[in-house]
Amino acid sequence: MDEFVDKVALITGAGRGVGREIALAFSSLGAAVAVNDINPVNLDMTVSQILEAGGNARAFVFDIAKRMPIEAMVTQVLDHFGRIDILVNHASVEPDASLLEMDEWEFHRTLDVNLGGPFFTMQQIGRVMQRQGGGFIVNLISMIPQDRIQKGNAAHLASQAGLIGLTHAAAREFSAHNIRVNAVCHGWFEMDLVALQAWDVANLHDWLESSPWVRLGDHPDLVSVVLFLCSKGASSLTGQVISVDLGKS
């Protein structure tokens, strides 16, 4: 995929996990990478890994929950790199509060980051891509199998369902401008579970063995699908929502 050489990819939520892996993958294939996260320490680690491998990356620390910071981020990316060819929306928050307990701020924060963030990044960068003559956008969607939905998932799942609808709508609107918009749904992954949850390590192995729907290890399949959707080979695909979850969503 040397087609990524001289291209610029912007990845939100690139400070850790899947977002970092996607940034590293694009860099390894020759793209310049603009990485975004709200946590500067995590983001610096992503940039350091890319630079150490001989890649080209720059950190953009912005909270993408609001339109104005997104506008500022896009302006800075253009000032530094000159263009944006690829957008991967990965940033998200996952609150842990039930419908009966969640406060208004936490609910709106979830929608602002998980749905508003992709909306305004696609709006701003879609205008850039329109001027450039095209581009690729991929939205990462974290879905939970129906039989695994638990207390505390409501706001997150609502935002992810909205992102699926937004992907379809953006694909239809942007197709006239040669901008392809797709989404990749993924389930839970072992390293994310360990990082985000206060698991009893002694019981984690037994839990994973009893839950074959959890994908173990890193995320090569997911990253490969994202790369494909941003390649010339996917130039006829838009408005697609592809699941990489062992068929368990």
How would you summarize what this structure contains?
The protein has eight helices and seven strands, in the order E-H-E-H-E-H-E-H-E-H-E-H-H-H-E.
Overview of this protein structure:
This protein is α/β, with parallel strands linked by helices and 249 residues long. It has one domain (2-239): Rossmann fold (3-Layer(aba) Sandwich). 47% of the residues lie in helices and 16% in strands. The protein has eight helices and seven strands; from the N terminus they run βαβαβαβαβαβαααβ. The protein has helices at 17-28, 40-52, 67-81, 104-132, 154-174, 190-196, 201-209, 220-229; strands at 8-11, 32-37, 56-61, 86-89, 135-142, 179-186, 241-244. Strands 3-2-1-4-5-6-7 form a seven-stranded parallel beta sheet, with helices on both faces. Strand 5 (135-142), helix 5 (154-174) and strand 6 (179-186) form a beta-alpha-beta unit. Helix 1 (17-28) packs parallel to helix 2 (40-52), helix 3 (67-81) runs parallel beside helix 4 (104-132) and helix 4 (104-132) runs parallel beside helix 5 (154-174). The radius of gyration is 17 Å and the shape is globular. The two termini are 30 Å apart. Mean pLDDT is 85; it is low at 145-149, 190-197 and 212-218.
What's the domain count? 1
Distance between the termini: 30 Å
* Side-by-side strand order of the widest sheet: 3-2-1-4-5-6-7
In DSSP terms (H or I, runs of 4 or more residues), the helix count works out at 8
Provide the CATH topology. Rossmann fold
- The helix content is 40-55%
Mean pLDDT, to the nearest integer, reads 85
Poorly predicted segments = 145-149, 190-197, 212-218
Global morphology: globular
Could you tell me the number of beta strands? 7
CATH class: Alpha Beta
